[in-house]
Batch of 3 targets.
Target 1
Amino acid sequence: MDKVTMTETIIASKLEKGLTWEAIAEKVGASPVWLTSACLGMNSASPEQAAAICDCLGLGSEVSTALQKFPTKIWEQTVPTDPLVYRFYEIMGVYGDTLKEVIQEKFGDGIMSAIDFNMEVDKEENPKGDRVVVTMSGKFLKYSAW
Amino acid sequence: MDKVTMTETIIASKLEKGLTWEAIAEKVGASPVWLTSACLGMNSASPEQAAAICDCLGLGSEVSTALQKFPTKIWEQTVPTDPLVYRFYEIMGVYGDTLKEVIQEKFGDGIMSAIDFNMEVDKEENPKGDRVVVTMSGKFLKYSAW
Amino acid sequence: MDKVTMTETIIASKLEKGLTWEAIAEKVGASPVWLTSACLGMNSASPEQAAAICDCLGLGSEVSTALQKFPTKIWEQTVPTDPLVYRFYEIMGVYGDTLKEVIQEKFGDGIMSAIDFNMEVDKEENPKGDRVVVTMSGKFLKYSAW
Amino acid sequence: MDKVTMTETIIASKLEKGLTWEAIAEKVGASPVWLTSACLGMNSASPEQAAAICDCLGLGSEVSTALQKFPTKIWEQTVPTDPLVYRFYEIMGVYGDTLKEVIQEKFGDGIMSAIDFNMEVDKEENPKGDRVVVTMSGKFLKYSAW
Amino acid sequence: MDKVTMTETIIASKLEKGLTWEAIAEKVGASPVWLTSACLGMNSASPEQAAAICDCLGLGSEVSTALQKFPTKIWEQTVPTDPLVYRFYEIMGVYGDTLKEVIQEKFGDGIMSAIDFNMEVDKEENPKGDRVVVTMSGKFLKYSAW
Amino acid sequence: MDKVTMTETIIASKLEKGLTWEAIAEKVGASPVWLTSACLGMNSASPEQAAAICDCLGLGSEVSTALQKFPTKIWEQTVPTDPLVYRFYEIMGVYGDTLKEVIQEKFGDGIMSAIDFNMEVDKEENPKGDRVVVTMSGKFLKYSAW
Amino acid sequence: MDKVTMTETIIASKLEKGLTWEAIAEKVGASPVWLTSACLGMNSASPEQAAAICDCLGLGSEVSTALQKFPTKIWEQTVPTDPLVYRFYEIMGVYGDTLKEVIQEKFGDGIMSAIDFNMEVDKEENPKGDRVVVTMSGKFLKYSAW
Amino acid sequence: MDKVTMTETIIASKLEKGLTWEAIAEKVGASPVWLTSACLGMNSASPEQAAAICDCLGLGSEVSTALQKFPTKIWEQTVPTDPLVYRFYEIMGVYGDTLKEVIQEKFGDGIMSAIDFNMEVDKEENPKGDRVVVTMSGKFLKYSAW
Amino acid sequence: MDKVTMTETIIASKLEKGLTWEAIAEKVGASPVWLTSACLGMNSASPEQAAAICDCLGLGSEVSTALQKFPTKIWEQTVPTDPLVYRFYEIMGVYGDTLKEVIQEKFGDGIMSAIDFNMEVDKEENPKGDRVVVTMSGKFLKYSAW
Amino acid sequence: MDKVTMTETIIASKLEKGLTWEAIAEKVGASPVWLTSACLGMNSASPEQAAAICDCLGLGSEVSTALQKFPTKIWEQTVPTDPLVYRFYEIMGVYGDTLKEVIQEKFGDGIMSAIDFNMEVDKEENPKGDRVVVTMSGKFLKYSAW
């Protein structure tokens, strides 16, 4: 079973059981963002995590095996059109150079790792309109000469 | 004075005085991320903010006027090659659909605003290597029929 | 049922019953533009709206469920070739900077929302040739510092 | 004098005199949208209109001649990144096929002209936040066989 | 029946009956260029024209209905590689600015309509090699202020 | 003198003398389309033609030499945005396959030459609106085996 | 039968019979390059050539008919990645302007035809390593005024 | 002196002295194609060759040094629009796969080198119109396992 | 059997037998990098190598024949998004010009062959984190005049 | 002084003094690859390294300061055309998926770092032709859940 079929199977089962990503994540003992990315085929799960996900959704070993495969991460390189996803690209376009200035001022010449990395999404209630809060954390990797 | 010359003037003066974005931001009473983005020409400042920035850097009214102009926000639409900025695009490519799933599960059909929006960068010390922490907060905007 | 099959099912049924988008919209109590966009898969309907659309077209619960799904809005990013649609892109190309000048002169630094937004199409009879009148209305969103 | 220099000259003079596009348009007796597009080099003015614009801004015959030249209308074919302009492209992406369905249902096989065309921008005050109202009107052109 | 299937059905029937576009056009009472473009799905036919085409080719009402549908005109925006078609793009690349100069010198600021338009192809016998003669005729549309 | 400077010099002189392309072509004894294309740098002139053009415009031998140079014909490969030029590309997009069908039906497998080629533009007066008539003539070149 | 199926059928039969392009070409009395290009769907064969090819490969009239169809020549416009084909594009990139200089110095303003054209491939044995020799011959076509 | 200035200097001197590439090549004792490519900056010359070229054109040591530099070979990756150069790309598009079939049938799995390579251009007189003959010769390089 | 099916068959069999590329390579007597590239369809195997691979994986003659076919090497020309593969492109982007400087300083004007070429991957254990070591070796090919 | 001017200054001085990258690297005590990349503006030097480079080339403090700046690493995202650099991209295109298979088989799900990374170039003498040997070493970074 490839990752695309795996994702379709998981989503169909999730809808049928009326589960949310948050509820599955809680049962599996993982962050909702990581859990969702693994189910969408963008990260690999350990055998225990894969078993817990399948147990929760009533799915068999084929899905469990597919969840453990190392993914080839492919996405469209043109800026995506969906308004929710586009706004994040707009933020990176507007603030990309700002992030470089501010991070390298704090840390020196290097980058924030996208591999040793995690991310959370929270809801902040607010009388003027609720706010989406996204928190990213990545290890700083320094350049050095040789 | 256009925004490009304004940015060059500000950066030259900042280097000469040995100031950091963080120090300027503190004196101006604004977030370092916002302050940097305004100085890089990606946001407009109020007359008071513009005056405070120029006062801090010893710059004249031409720069102050340029800081107040409404920017035309232009950036390369191809994915940028600088490793620090690229990693943020990679995160959006890997986690874009995950963010859509998780946010719309929490909030309904809509988007996180990139206009009514703010962002912070923090340094988290860690014995295995310090971490970059980026926090974004944007108002949720809901679709409705008409 | 995905949105593409939903749209095909709706259009087949609409042709068979000889209905127009305008007639369906009137029965549903919505604007023809919004109604058409929801049936083409570019907006989500409330349960009541979805039921009314299906009732009007003699369609079942699968279509109703598909109409309520939150869409992923995808379109070609190259300028479209169909002459009717191209002319609207030409208008945006010719008048885009003009709209920025005129709107920001009236409202300050910010944008017209494409989420809190509606649009109407009218026919204006005219002896020299009838005219198409398109009216768009979107909430103004202001940038502010943090 | 080419159109680019003409636009720079007009904008410098407008800033110096503290005029708005709306005020100039009123003196010239034209719509603010058309007036702005002519000053940005995207439409040609009649000798009378060009004279009125230059009179209002205290500019000479070189600018007047440039305003009368037939423009070559060039714009970036990649979707623009400025958030205000991008939102209009997003609207066309989301609602382009809807406009085709609704207009051709009302008028038959043909297009809305972008040449025999005009557009207005209005501000609608609203306690939940003011709204931008854009109205476009174009002659319907019908396809016919030969 | 969609336009693609319609075109395949018409071409199969045309080959089987050994007809030419020119012969069909003559029976239908239309120009060969228009007739071919309608059969290739790039123009819509009136009910009478559609009936005449189907009568001539021995095809049923499904094809006739498909011929009457308003087409969505889609083509590749990259320059086509087929040598016959490429040469026409080369002509437009070499002579595009020349056409703009010569037409606007004759007519003023405006365009040649591609909607109120027709085109013919003729064979001119010539001892040095026969020549292809293509004649295009389109209504001039003038820009005017508002 | 390169072709770009040559074109600028010719256009400046033509404006100053109040000449039209048509008038220059008549004096030179050439078609207005060819004459304009040579002056825009897209064709080379013979020494006699170059001398006649310069004589007519009061220009010296540098321009004459530049007119005789073999041009490198470069144009934008993205579809041009100017509405007059775009309409010709739209015609080629809509009717390209039709031209292939109709020409190869008449002539066999081959192409219309864009080198052994000429083109004229005429104005056809018409009470419903004047029409632009463009006539292209190119030698047919046949494919053959070897 | 379309050209793609035709090519697959020919290649399957060629493999089964253990024939080479060179052997087929010799039996048909044509150049191996032209023969291969016709079998790959990039040129049309005469009825006699088509019959000879099918006779040689033991194929029926469907393939023969397909070989006689006038091809629509389509290829990828991005530079191909296969190393053998890429090297020819590299040669054109490195030597394109050189070919223009050398050919037009010898022949005047014009081009080498790609229609009235033929090409051969030979093997030149060489102790330092055998060499591929490719010879192209095309009619010179001259530009002339009108 | 960079390669661009070097080429301009050589071409100016060549025009002034009324020399052809062929004449220079003969004096230098090299092929006209190689000589032209070195003068256009696409190949490096030995000190002796560089001295001979400069001697022939009356140019100094700066040009000689520039001719000896190892070039960075850059060209536009979009297909060029100049008709002479485009025809060679069309030939590669139409016959690229044919060349792969014919060469690998003769030589095995490998490529024709574009480095250990040479090319000649000849004029073949012909009563039906003179022909351009281009001959390319490159060493065959074989793939092997490891 | 085409190369795509061949690769799928090999990978399915490899998973079922629990073999690694390294183990297969050892049995076949080839480098793991070359062996993997041949199984992924990017190199051709000799009859003996193909037989050894199939023997090892329990596969039949169809797979063996497919392994011996000369591949057409196709890959995406846009920079790939998978993080492991992207990092190698980033290295080439950052160090491409450096490689040119350093190699041509050592060897003269020429290139490193990608045909007469091999590559190895090793694991270097390291207390600060294991390291990936990639070694490439290619024959130097020199440019020479003709 | 920006990085572009810095590189031009360094290269001019290096040519004048007749130094090689290898000689400068030896004096500075760094690898030739790293040293060259820093001088080409793709890495930042420490104050000591910058001083040593400038000392060796007889350059002042402006160059030293520029060498210490954190670079914004920009390169063309289209595949480069220079044959030496292109061959490395071809290697990545042909062997990219192979590298992913072989590295992840050895190390698990993760990547080779391009930040904690170094590279060497060596010359291997060989009677059949000298070989270029490139060795890359990067830390393995593992994905883990959160």
Target 2
Amino acid sequence: MQNDLLRLDALNAMTAADFAAALGPVFENAPWVARNAAAARPFATLTALHKAMLTGIEALAAPALAEFLNGHPRLSPETLRRGTTAESTAEQTALGLDALDAEISARLDRLNAAYEARFGYPFILAVRKASLETLFATFERRLAASPEAERAEALAEVAAISWMRLLDRVRAAPTGSVSTHVLDTVRAAPAGGLGVELWRRESDGGMTRITSFVTNADGACDHHLLGGGDLAAGTYEWRYDTPTYFARHGYSTTARAYLGKVRVAFTVWNPEEHFHVPLLLSPGAYTTYRGS
Amino acid sequence: MQNDLLRLDALNAMTAADFAAALGPVFENAPWVARNAAAARPFATLTALHKAMLTGIEALAAPALAEFLNGHPRLSPETLRRGTTAESTAEQTALGLDALDAEISARLDRLNAAYEARFGYPFILAVRKASLETLFATFERRLAASPEAERAEALAEVAAISWMRLLDRVRAAPTGSVSTHVLDTVRAAPAGGLGVELWRRESDGGMTRITSFVTNADGACDHHLLGGGDLAAGTYEWRYDTPTYFARHGYSTTARAYLGKVRVAFTVWNPEEHFHVPLLLSPGAYTTYRGS
Amino acid sequence: MQNDLLRLDALNAMTAADFAAALGPVFENAPWVARNAAAARPFATLTALHKAMLTGIEALAAPALAEFLNGHPRLSPETLRRGTTAESTAEQTALGLDALDAEISARLDRLNAAYEARFGYPFILAVRKASLETLFATFERRLAASPEAERAEALAEVAAISWMRLLDRVRAAPTGSVSTHVLDTVRAAPAGGLGVELWRRESDGGMTRITSFVTNADGACDHHLLGGGDLAAGTYEWRYDTPTYFARHGYSTTARAYLGKVRVAFTVWNPEEHFHVPLLLSPGAYTTYRGS
Amino acid sequence: MQNDLLRLDALNAMTAADFAAALGPVFENAPWVARNAAAARPFATLTALHKAMLTGIEALAAPALAEFLNGHPRLSPETLRRGTTAESTAEQTALGLDALDAEISARLDRLNAAYEARFGYPFILAVRKASLETLFATFERRLAASPEAERAEALAEVAAISWMRLLDRVRAAPTGSVSTHVLDTVRAAPAGGLGVELWRRESDGGMTRITSFVTNADGACDHHLLGGGDLAAGTYEWRYDTPTYFARHGYSTTARAYLGKVRVAFTVWNPEEHFHVPLLLSPGAYTTYRGS
């Protein structure tokens, strides 16, 4: 965990002016959002703080909302050349918009122009979690949306951007964790004794193993993992040693096994939430889903 | 593909003595198996050749079968020190039995002794596809089996070992291939336009990308992959670009997506078969299985 | 199959005036739709005929579209008392709108008034497949939609209504059929030898068994079922004799089985299509989906 | 619930002779099982009582075990004509063995003779949960088993028969219940607001609705169902009003829905256990499994 993050109790205790200064850049060119949210303190969680900030935006009448949306910079190399907020610069650069080849850049320009002509404000996207592929896939879909649907989606992206900027500044409440649960659908019973590893994707794309354990008689870990504030937003992967499990139960010989080790990648967006990932397992099939 | 492999038509055309010499080591200390199979030529596939060889073993009366099983070397560091067939040496060494630490080695010795006392022949396992984890998991399970069940499993391992040795010597018929098929369970329709990659695990554990394609309107590749003799036994992995697909369809924003890229590892045991791997996909769950 | 249905070749051969007369009531108060579609004949399938008719509506400019939508009667007891088209009368009566109690009727009136005030045309729903529960669930959701999204959904309902009216008048092309396919995920292989029944829901709510068969070695029926024009729109149900299958394979004893007989209900909307319903089966879980 | 059942506390309090008399017929022609189990009282649950009784059988040496197994009557019309225990008569009659046609009866005789010749004791099956189909499917499979495997399976059937006879005599502890949990895999979130019904299969084959509820925000019922001793062994069915749920969320229009109402049949074998049945739901697929 980053040690230089603000703590929620510090945010709750500081002056309104300091609070507004600390969180001002969370919404692009809209320091008033943080300023207004100061009055709603104290916040027990980052989720509650974020919700309070969004409430201010949802309350905007149409002209003020248009102005707010227009405060967002265009996503484009040109924006980076001209200069924009530090936050947007970092986000757009992380996606590689500072180094697009000419063809891609021109395609992006055409989409930006078409979008602005249709909707009257710039295309807004939480680019830090995007790739160029998802950027363009999203852009083309949203260009065809109705104005009402698109406004809702633009606001959802505003929420996503501001949430990630909050996570950059403030330590989340230690309420989140992850867990898994494996059901053996051959025996219609929990899969005990199965080796499981939990890995995290690092910012350089590499994977780091966080922990490993063997499932208990209930097919689960004895306690929630990454609790107590250790869960960070990001991408994780469960790796299940299914070949050994199948060998132990005689479901399939090692030589003839069909399934290799099962891996399930999942993304933690809100580290104050619990992420439960069950696995339904048999030699010929498996199912995974977001549990609750 | 290895170019120094024998071809089936060459095997079919050679003298019985040459055939027996070429395939003699396929069954451990039982060159008669290859000798007897020569008369059943020609074989259109390696699968048919293997089946003919196994027929000879299945026809053995109990004493001859016991003798055949006893022709297999014990899996142990001691065996490697004393020397055994070239094939078994290579297989046991690949699993690391030449470099076990003392504790593991002693554990293996105890299991071997208990097994031989109970069943009257050595523990047989197709070790090349095994890990130490699956070796011990399998060993402990089989030690508790009934004599009849265990004899069946020992013969299944004999089949697995001989199959892999055949694959080392003879080029498989070009009848195998792989395919995938993605169903979008949100729309209850094929998932067209989804990026898919096929990767292969190399002998050093690294992954090599074999091909990539975008699913057609039926949610599949336009043609079977790795056909025409290009499919080799081994471990493969499908990688599906589900985040981009979800972004295009607006199922989930990139920032809030729950599932990361979906990967499905599967093992090709018989490269003369077709391996079909469907994926049922939604933002909150996926299911994969061995199709047909 | 109803023998008094028009045949597509007869429709293709008749005069434009007869064609228009035969299909005039298919779109509510819009006989011009059938009249215009006559020129696009011949049609090989009902699906093609329907698509041609819809093309005429999709081409309407906004004022003409508003007029077209306003040609639809309000769904309400009052409409039935005052009298409307024979088709709408039959459809609304089938849903029970002629016999609503006062409270439900008042609730429907309130929704109708709110909807018309918001969108400027009556709420349109393909009521024949609806229940009062789905009517109200749909109504409340659509009342909150954006005008653009709601117009798209109203047109989808127009398509659904007209499709069912076409099915009342014209025999579908004999291109549709149903099939199932069962995978045994314990053995990672097709589930052969499994007893399967196909049932159809009758208009009185009762179920009629259409056919039964035992799955072949590929886990399927030897041929598509209800082909050759025997498939009608409606609700069907697969019933799988999983307890006997499990007993035969020793997966679970009859006494301790967890799953009862598996039933999968599915709706055929377009009898010119093929409906494939796979089942992934194990003693502790099953998955079914719309295949392709 | 049957009110004339013995209570566990009464069984715990009665004399050993009365206990033995009350439970003597639970194991076929082996009143000593109940007699011996008396000393292990008190029992908190029927499960514990049953386990104690089975312990006595598992401790038998081979000759005594053979004698015990041979105390079971042959399953056949001839047995019923000659007369056997009241319990076995009732069980065999419920399966219809008193009214087999000649061909089926002869087939059963052949299997019985072959089985007894092979294993040295009669074929034992918990027939009350069987059908003629599962009887024959099981019989043919077990006839081919190894003596060790078959002895284990015969003892499993002894356990099943005695368990059902215990349930006939003694009221189970009120520890069991059922529950369901529905995940919406489109939104990757619990499916709240979904109508669910729980039905029970009656002895005459008809279905009775036990209860209905609407799922809460967690996709579940607010409390476990059939708790407090209301759960009886038997077959149950969940019925989910998926069409209304899909209509409310706009996942599919009623007219075009693919899936009909989802029904999941499951069997409660031990009414002292909790039976959790999750459902993973999307418009194009669903998965159900035995949860824990």
Target 3
Amino acid sequence: MSLYVMKFGGSSVGDTERMQRVARRVVEKQDEGHQCVVVVSAMGDTTDDLIDQSKLLNENPPAREMDMLMTTGEQISMSLLAMSIHNLGREAVSYTGWQAGFRTEAVHGKARINDISPIRVNKALEEGKIVIVAGFQGMTEEGEITTLGRGGSDTTAVALAAAIQADVCEIYTDVDGIYSTDPRVVKCARKLNEISYDEMLELANLGAAVLHPRAVEYAKHNNVKLVVRSSFNYNEGTVVKEEASMEQGAVVSGIAFDKNVARISILGVSDYPGVLARVFGALAQEGIDVDIIVQSGVQNGEADFSFTIARHESQRALSVIEGIRTEVPFREVTSEVNLVKVSIVGAGMVSHPGVAAQMFDVISKQDVSIKMVSTSEIKVSCVIEGSNLEGVVQALHTAYGLDTNQQASVGGPQVRR
Amino acid sequence: MSLYVMKFGGSSVGDTERMQRVARRVVEKQDEGHQCVVVVSAMGDTTDDLIDQSKLLNENPPAREMDMLMTTGEQISMSLLAMSIHNLGREAVSYTGWQAGFRTEAVHGKARINDISPIRVNKALEEGKIVIVAGFQGMTEEGEITTLGRGGSDTTAVALAAAIQADVCEIYTDVDGIYSTDPRVVKCARKLNEISYDEMLELANLGAAVLHPRAVEYAKHNNVKLVVRSSFNYNEGTVVKEEASMEQGAVVSGIAFDKNVARISILGVSDYPGVLARVFGALAQEGIDVDIIVQSGVQNGEADFSFTIARHESQRALSVIEGIRTEVPFREVTSEVNLVKVSIVGAGMVSHPGVAAQMFDVISKQDVSIKMVSTSEIKVSCVIEGSNLEGVVQALHTAYGLDTNQQASVGGPQVRR
């Protein structure tokens, strides 16, 4: 007998029929001899409908009242799911965030969980009941209702799994698991059987729709075994856990990319201490996130440097830089907006030098020039022209042995370098 | 400065426009220098929609989960109203039943309030905020969410008014107040300026749609001054309070009627001790409510008696009586289903003998025969043929000086006897 936390997102409980499917799925798990705690999101469009309604009354509603409003979405879906499970002849009991013992900081709209006292959840489990918990919500010490913000229900599931020492936290969604890259770009993208927490975090911009980075961090910190799988079929899904038992020989697990990249270059900057701090301090003050930063060597007391930001921020960034020209004199500032960032991600690359060199080789053979490079322990990123994205991702996917058919024929991941 | 509890029902907050009208109304009250606590029901059809959704998943859902589901309705309307009031530049804060301190017995679907600890409500009032409280709901000692059942939001308002020692509890609805009779039957029905708790209770089947009897009892018990008025205009409404200051000279305040009456007569029953207890015990066991009971004198050791029940219960009642024939022998049982009960209600009749006699006179002048009579301190009821209902109600309404035009011309209620 294992203890499962099963999280179902809004699309999995989007209508009555889907709700019944989830109920059957949970009952099947109990039939296999397991204990089940289910975390649910609001049904389908409920959250958006509530937001629309609020906007009609107040364009800028107080966050406290928005939390009061939004938390009804999960309360509706959890009670309906409980009824649907009762209809299958099983005992089920639903709890709001505060009833399940979620205590959060006193912030509305994006509260962090302070601690969880799952007394009632544990008691109901002992009584043989299926427990259903509202995702995304908690309560402050003062009894105020809060929400956890984006990815909240994933975080609820992971945090609850840690608190009740569940054996597995299953995240049910509308895809089969985590893929080696976006299947819309690479047709033979491969579903991964396993992936490490760190890799999952680096693949975030591919996987964010499936599993929120915050939940992954929480899982890593509390060593919660995650399984990402489909609520529409019985395929095995992707296990997210510590890297110890990663797939043999797989140096690169996936190819991530970000289509929304602009580069700003500041040329001929007088080199003196604090110049970088001044530039990036000014950008941070405006809330502009900077990703990759590259500085050239100093020549004749002048340096060039470049950085990447989200495309839609480029005009604002240029204004900020013009605004500090008197303090930080430079010769010229330029911007390029049609760029993308392609990354190879893999826990195995720590112990495999030459992975970056192979990546550059693959890209150059596509006749594509690399504009910027950035590396971390388990990731190498290259910034290239946006028009080259699909060809480069496909070539890297093939080069690192991630294509499905290739896997099937050679029996295991192959890495060429 | 007075402290007001203002209760708005589902139709008063049925859509965005009405919600805004309620917000303005509350702000106007604050502008007059008063403190305001608002109790809201779920918006328009929300409750029915939720019930419909639940029925699709479970024809007979567990009451606990129904309470979990239903209480979201008020939580949505209270938070939207808070946003709408904020939009008018005022501070408002909404509380669920449990946050407002409503503790109930551990029964789902129709819990009674055990006590109220309105600590947060009082604190928010002290801070100058408008407080909004979800009607119809509370929490048990064990932290389970409960609902108060039919008329729940009225009861919430009255109980809260008692707990915070409000000066007035205003019940906003879609009619101008309590009428002397149903305006659909008598065109010149008169809106009452004042009425006593007891009269209101006796008029319940006219006024139930406006004010639930349970809330009236609670108000009487705690001496809460009620005002029933329209949320769509500024007319003064009807004050419900102790009878001390009832309208001068008004012996009869209103004409109530019940269209749903059947009479069962059991003829030739052997008279012995306990026979009535046996008959009505058997009916009670089947959950059949009996209203008026009339027993004739005993002749030759045999008695006849009759009683009234709701029309749709008559077939079941006949079966019950046939079922006890061996224990309680009788000659014959008959039933009449097309009857109605007409009642005159008035606190003044205690000190005015002859009111009943006048009623019989008015009815006989309509050529209508009276089948049964029942009296209480402030009410006289006659059971008559259903086809005579409208004529009799109109005649009584006129006879007791309740018609509007008559009032206008003679300057005050007149009672002829």
